[in-house]
Amino acid sequence: MTFVKQILLLISQTFCIVCFAQTETIDSLKKGLPLLHNNQKVDYLLKISFAFGHVNNDTDDIFAPLNCDSATFYASIALKEAEKITYQKGIANAYENLGEMASYYNFRDGEKYLRQAVLHIIKFRIRQT
Predict the structure, then answer these.
(1) Contact 50, 98 (CB under 8 A)
(2) What are the backbone angles phi and psi of residue 102, rounded to the nearest 5°?
(3) What pTM value is reported for the model?
(4) Is the distance from CB of 94 to CB of 78 less than 8 angstroms?
(5) d(Cα 50, Cα 26) in Å, to the nearest integer?
(6) Which pairs count as long-range contacts for 17-20, CB under 8 Å and 24+ apart, including other chains?
(7) Three-state DSSP class for 25?
(8) Contacts of 8 (CB under 8 A, 6+ apart)
(9) From 26's CA, which of 35, 53, 56, 103 has a CA 20 to 30 Å away?
(10) pLDDT tens per residue, range 51-84
(11) Domains and their CATH numbers in the chain
(12) Is 86 left (phi over 0), alpha (psi -120 to 50) or beta?
């Protein structure tokens, strides 16, 4: 086997392992969702959105545009739920997730959502942890 083929094989195996771990995380988060209400439900929806939008769920450093549609879908649901219960931190975080996903495809839409997140954080003095 040539060196290039070995490298390609290693990369594809690594990608499969990461995707499997991501699916496992998302599935476990989805299972707990029906039991949650209010702030906890919004936070879980945002975790699911984050998991769909990132290869490595432990860090913001590795963004994977592979599942932007799913990430956007869950962030949109989180935004609606947060607005229903006026959960300000949830609203800000949902705008942040939506902005990150949108900016990959359309910079202006991404900027619009991220500006909303920043304005919300400032207006309500939200601490990001």
Answers:
(1) no
(2) -65, -35
(3) 0.75
(4) yes
(5) 10
(6) 18/55, 18/56
(7) helix
(8) none
(9) 103
(10) 888 765 455 555 555 688 899 999 999 999 999 9
(11) 3-123 (1.25.40.10)
(12) left
